[in-house]
Amino acid sequence: MAYDEACGERPRLLVVANRLPVSAKRTGENSWSLEMSPGGLVSGLLGVAAQFDTKWVGWPGVDVYDEVEKRALSKALAEMKCIPVFLNEVFDQYYNGYCNGILWPILHHMGLPQEDDNDTNKTFQTQYDAYKRANRMFLDVIIDNYEEGDIVWCHDYHLMFLPQYLKEYNNKIKVGWFLHSPFPSSEVYKTLPSRSELLRSVLTSDLLGFHTYDFARHFVSTCTRILGVEGTQEGVVDHGRVTRVAVFPLGIDPDRFIRTCKLPEVRQQMNELKERFAGKKVILGVDRLDMIKGIPQKFLGFEKFLEENPNWRDKVVLVQIAVPTRNGVPEYRKLKNQAHGLVGRINGRFGSVTSLPIHHLDCSVDFNYLCALYAIADVMLVTSLRDGMNLVSYEFIACQEAKKGVLVLSEFAGAGQSLGAGALLVNPWDVTEVSSAIKEALNMSVEERETRHRVNFQYVKTYSAKKWGDDFMRELNETVTESEMQIGK
Ligand code: G6P
After folding, report:
1. ipTM over 0.85
2. What is the pLDDT of residues 346-405, one digit of tens each?
3. C-alpha 370 – ligand 1 centre gap (Å)
4. Which of 192, 114, 120 is closest to 157 using CA atoms?
5. Whose CA is nearest to atom 12 of ligand 1?
6. Which residue in 414, 363, 402, 404 sits closest to 380, CA to CA?
7. Residue nearest (by alpha carbon) to ligand 1 atom 1
8. Start-end of H helices in 146-194
């Protein structure tokens, strides 16, 4: 089917991601509440869905074993065009084990954890097997819902076997795969025990997308080094078959944030926050509580700043929203304790009876309140150690039309390559550099803030989630699949 916006025909699309855009919470027997799922992938994709006749396939956020309950939840989700994959008994080894205990650290240059061979459920091999089983469960649900002509867009590191399974099932299906996280250097990727199988599967896709040129380049050179295939301008060539590899920087739906900041109740929340923090500059951090987000490094940089700048001690506050995530993975639980320890130390050192330098929250906040926080912040501090894109940076800029605050941004986030012109880029491992950037941001002249904001605001408006989806889908549509080539012969 040709993708032609002008003729009004919307291409049919199956978006397959580990998480559905809504997560279910059980409220009673056979009853559920549905909430928006966390993470950049979901917020990015929401900006895309409207342009296509889209159905979502993914994990609904809960285990459901009872068939009657499965049907009830599937019905509720169907109203939101969502189709659940009930991963149940496979979930722990697939999601906590292989996806987030093994692949996630490798993709973010953090190295493999020590294999736990005391517990047969936790060996690399059992987790790898569960990963493959889970990918097959996604395939089965797709097969049940697939209509001829549907394009299948697979997302992220959870589904690296799905392209191969889809092509084995029906070689005519057009398959795209997009990686929302970074792709590492081949030297790091090489340590993964099942390294070749995963790459070979991903390469069966018709189009592969990455956020940045660097991630795409790492991927291609990893394929050439590990599989001995050829890397070209187009992508990867294996025995004459080309897999197109291209760069599509994800964005947000900026108008949603701009509109929200204008709502009377959000303005009211902004006024209350301004009153609450009167006489102080607000530095804001909004992250999932993940090792890759560099939250301890952020606290150390802020501590250094307070140490070196006593005149700022009662004039600045760091508000850190640390959204709980992946509690089933031991590393994440350790991180929470580490973050709490640092907050306690810094508040103990620099706080007073009536004021504390860090306000640390172990929870998410609702969307309107988040926009109010973004809008009143003077500085946004993003210190990711490595990050796919970091859409929080984009969200901050979209909400800063009035204030024109400063973005201090890690050079290791994908966004560092897109928003680098307007942001103050830092190496988050260098506490002195983070401390200096905080100082520079707090002291920056209005003129400089305006100039920097203008550049980034323009970028965020232009490179939206809609553009990302359009560009990916256009390119996927133009890519000739192997089966189309065979017909053309
Ligand atoms: C990152 C990943 C997404 C994931 C999100 C939230 O953005 O790239 O695939 O959905 O984090 O993580 P979670 O494990 O809660 O889905």
Report:
1. yes
2. 999 999 999 999 999 999 999 999 999 999 999 999 999 999 999 999 999 999 999 999
3. 19
4. 192
5. 39
6. 404
7. 39
8. 162-169, 186-189
